Structure formats: C-alpha cells, structure tokens
Amino acid sequence: MVVGFALVAAWEIVTAAGVVAFRKPMYNALSLVANMLGLAVLFLMLNAQFLFAAQVIVYAGAVMVLFVFIIALINPESDVALPPRGNEWIYGAVFGVIFAALLVSLLFNRGLTGRSGTLTPEAIAAVGNVQTIGIALYTKFLFPVEVTSLLLLIAAVGAVYLAIRRIR
Amino acid sequence: MPVPAYSFLLLSGVLFTMGAVGFLIRRNPLVVFMCIELMLNAVNLAFVAISRYLNSLDGVVFAFLVITVAAAEVVVGIAIIVQVYRAGRPMDVDDLDLMKE
User: Fold this and answer.
1) Which of A35, A118, B3, B74 has the fewest Cβ atoms within 10 Å of its own Cβ atom?
2) Using one digit for the tens of pLDDT, what is the confidence trace for B26-39?
3) Closest Cα to residue A27, out of A35, A17, A18?
4) A9 touching chain B per CB within 8 A
5) Rounded to the nearest 5 degrees, what angle is found at the Cα of A113, between the Cα atoms of A127 and A4?
6) Which of B33, B36, B57 to mutate to probe the A interface, most A CBs <10 Å?
7) With 0-12 CB in 10 A as exposed, 13-18 as middle and 19+ as buried, what is B61?
C-alpha cells in the first residue's frame, strides 16, 4: 500500500510539473489527463469508489475532451509565438516555495483534529459505497445538490449565449 | 490503513502549490485554466483524505460538488476563450482587457 502510494504520488508530481512546464498546450492537456487518472487511483486507495468513477467520467472524460477539442480548434502553437517574458517566472517560483512552506508548517504544527464519524469502511461496505453517498446526497445534502443543479443550468445557458454572440 | 493521512495532505499541498505557480507564470489562458483544474483536484484530494480518516462521507460529497462546479466553470471559461479567439485578440492573459471596454 505504501509502495503503491509512493508510485502514484511520484506520478502525480511529475504530471503536474508537465502541466505547468510544457510549452505546447496539447502536451499540457495530456499531462493533465494523466494527472487526473492518477488522482482517481488515489481516490480508490481512499475507499471512495463513487468519486473514482466520477473523476474518470467527468474530469478525465468530459472536461479534458473539451480542452483537447478547443486546443485543436484554436491555434495550438499560440504560446510559443509569444515573445519570451524574461525572468518574471522567478517571482512565481519564489511564491511557490513560500506558499508550500506555509502549508507544510501549518499541517505539522496544528495536527489533524476533528470528531470522528460513524461511517467506518465496514459500515460503508455493509450498505454499499454508492448507496451511502446517494443517501447522503438526497437527505443531508439535498439543498446543495439542488443549488448545484441550478448552477449547471445557468452555466449551460451562459455557454450557449456566449457561443451565439459575436464580439466586434 | 498503513498510509498516514499526512502523506495525502502533503501531496495535496504540493499539487495545489504547483497549480498556483503555473497559474502565475503561464500566459496562455487555456493553460491557466488547466492550472486552476490542478488546484481544484488537489483540494478534492484533501477533502477525500480527511473524510476517509474521520470516518465521514461529508468530504466525499463536497468533492463531488467541487467536480460539478469545476465542470460548469470550464464550460463558461472555454466559451469566453473561444470568443476572445474569434475577436482576433492575442492569446495572452496579460493582454486581455475586453471587460474594460
């Protein structure tokens, strides 16, 4: 289990570096697909089978297909054609180091606290993973789910409106 | 569970930082969007890890809602990027000031 986690973690970090560093947007997109598939494996290790399926279908499937189509539609070389920017990326790197140090120090100083719930892996396995999440979604989290459905409707209408409208 | 929760949270923090750095240093709006997706994914990992180690499902449900919101956000964002491309503007986030006009 630990070896598996280390392998997937290394995979995640390498593909995330690819998303940030590749020059061609298509390579960035393919790195992101690999990253999301690795994340799905991590969800599986964390006993979240439903989220594993949702991650593969929604993210690695739908969202990334959209990205790849749009990159193929508009000029995929556009980032290369830009004039080089000089040394401004150093500011980004410095920010990254400081931010990561803050996150890590926070994590190790405060520790993990919280009241443990009742849904142990055994309790979830007794009912079924998807069933447990479905019960939670339609009882305890009914209002957020309804709000999210409204959000999806608004996003669909907005995308169609943006698609038919022409900017000068 | 031999893998401690800290390792998942640490990986989540590293991924989030890489996404934030990419967001700051990249200029292509599509790549900037991909870095936002990277950050959202890192947060999802933290949600699911906490949820697993506290024997609760709330984090999983939140991660599910985050996936939904991210999908909606990508749809609208890519529609805007295509509009900018159609308008013949340069694909550089530093040069985009359409909202000012």
Assistant:
1) A118
2) 888 889 999 999 99
3) A18
4) yes
5) 60
6) B57
7) buried
